[in-house]
Amino acid sequence: MRKKYTFYVVVIIFCFGAFVQNINAQLRITEVDPSTERLKIKNFGASTINISSYRLCSKFKYGTLSDMTLIDGFLNLMPNASVEVTVALSGGNAIDDIADMGLYLPTGNFGTPSSMIDFTQWGSGGNGRESVAVTNGLWTAGTFINVAAPYEFIGGVNDRGVSFWDTLLSTENVEAITKFNMAPNPASLHLNINVPRRLENATLSVFDVLGKNILEQTLGGLQTVSIDVSKWNTGIYIVKVSSDEVTQTKRFIKQ
Prior knowledge:
By secondary structure, the protein is mostly beta strands. It has 3 helices and 19 strands. The strands form 5 sheets. The protein has a 6-stranded antiparallel sheet, with no helix packed on it.
């Protein structure tokens, strides 16, 4: 009888642990702005989670969410709600221009993969706790966000990795920007890029998901450019058009 009771206790503890782990998996970092030290976290789940004791880690600098300045929302995070904070971490400036950001459970070692809930990094690969995120299946080694800050997560709760991060343009920038168009997308042979008007000192750049620059070309007043992509590997690429006036990025899929 005692063995049977012990078995049931173990099963209950295991099920409860799996339930808690599933709830925590609904929390995602959705915005990061190094210039303003701003960060946003969203609860994609169906249950309210109090994240006041959850922790952040960026390049081995640490902090607890309850110690950070609340900008918008509540740390008692309701379903499908977001909270925005000004990050305050130990050991120097909160968020560097080239860094990582990990979201952690209230307890557990920062070097333990099961303690990390979410992860992102920008500017370069191999920052901070990247290896922990890779072990936990949250990130791919060496990949990083390679677009203009601030950064925005554009995926869903089950999406992981740099492919689901893009630049977050303010309303003012959206109104001012001259958007370029790409077609066809996806493409297998040629990608045609059209800029509606001439941009001064404009440059066209293309990066793969590892952040490697595979194409750099000055537009020189051209408004239409055709790129031969037939020999590129299949996958997602980041296309960026930048000038003295604006910078815009879009995603391109090579079939």
